Amino acid sequence: MLNLTGKNALVTGIANNRSIAWGIAQQLHQAGANLGVTYLPDEKGRFEKKVAELVEPLQPSLFVPCNVQDDAQIQATFDTVKEKWGKLDILIHCLAFANKEDLSGNFSSTSRQGFAQALEISTYSLIQMAGAAKPLMTEGGSIVTLTYLGGVKVIPNYNLMGIAKSGLEMSVRYLASEMGQQNIRVNGISAGPIRTLASSAVGGILDMIHHVEEVAPLRRTVTQLEVGNAAAFLCSDLSSGITGQILYVDAGYEIMGM
Ligand code: NAD
């Protein structure tokens, strides 16, 4: 049975009730995990309030600000985990960012600044957080990140985020290779398109969702909770032999040639 009782799970990337991370947090909680939640702080504290209200029913025992562009905030997050929990079992990396203007039009127009920022937030943050989590995963652990088909195949308008996801997927493999001896497993979930704050920045996302609904074997796209179930599996002992993999949770769309 899928049981995460006694496991400490740090979940990043909850912005609102549409966030994939929210679906994951709910399923980890249902499986019995002790949750910690990070949020992206903003000047007026609006995100903090909104996310705090949303996650309150899941009774997280940690709630910390973490902008992954700030080394000090990442350090403080994992210092808090060490101080309050002693050990970490699960890290959910479920965040990404790219400028809206870089998510439509010609890929060759991608700006240097936009490219650097997108890869720093969406790709490098996994490497940095995994490195910070490693010494705390003293009893082994599971790290799960979120990726998209646009990192493997060309998806209209996904542009530089495709490069970020490609790097993210390769990072999963390098991290899995390094951390396996410590029984830390690192996997990615490639989710089908879901309407969220982040995906709404991608030009033509609704067309993509409709296309998936017509073509995918299950004739629909997926829900946050379905992604959450797959994440709970990857975080549990049921997946103890799986590491370095990208698991498609996309209603089967990836197998199609059209
Ligand atoms: P979302 O907007 O709900 O989540 C994105 C999160 O990234 C937000 O919580 C935001 O606060 C966080 N974030 C952005 N910049 C940050 C920073 N500097 N520091 C810390 N956090 C930061 O959207 P989502 O669709 O749930 O995205 C979650 C993950 O799922 C992303 O990696 C995304 O690429 C991936 N994904 C999404 C889809 C989709 O169709 N929605 C499909 C496949 C993969």
UniProtKB/TrEMBL annotation:
EC number from the UniProt entry: 1.3.1.9
Keywords (A to Z) from UniProt: Fatty acid biosynthesis, Fatty acid metabolism, Lipid biosynthesis, Lipid metabolism, NAD, Oxidoreductase
Q: Which GO terms describe its biological process?
A: fatty acid biosynthetic process
Origin superkingdom: Bacteria
Cross-referenced SUPFAM superfamilies, in alphabetical order?
NAD(P)-binding Rossmann-fold domains
The residues forming a coiled coil are none
Protein residues bound to substrate: 98
Please state the pathway this protein functions in, per its UniProt record. Answer: Lipid metabolism; fatty acid biosynthesis
Q: Which Pfam families match?
A: adh_short_C2 (PF13561)
Q: What is this enzyme's catalytic activity, as reactions?
A: a 2,3-saturated acyl-[ACP] + NAD(+) = a (2E)-enoyl-[ACP] + NADH + H(+)
> What are the protein's GO molecular function terms?
enoyl-[acyl-carrier-protein] reductase (NADH) activity; NADP binding
Residues passing through the membrane, by range: none
Tell me the enzyme class: oxidoreductase
| Catalytic site | 148, 158
At which positions is NAD(+) bound? 13, 19-20, 95, 165, 194-198
Subunit and partners: Homotetramer.
Q: What family does this chain come from, according to its entry?
A: Belongs to the short-chain dehydrogenases/reductases (SDR) family. FabI subfamily.
Q: What is this protein called?
A: Enoyl-[acyl-carrier-protein] reductase [NADH]
Taxonomy, top ranks, is: Bacteria, Bacillati, Cyanobacteriota, Cyanophyceae, Gomontiellales
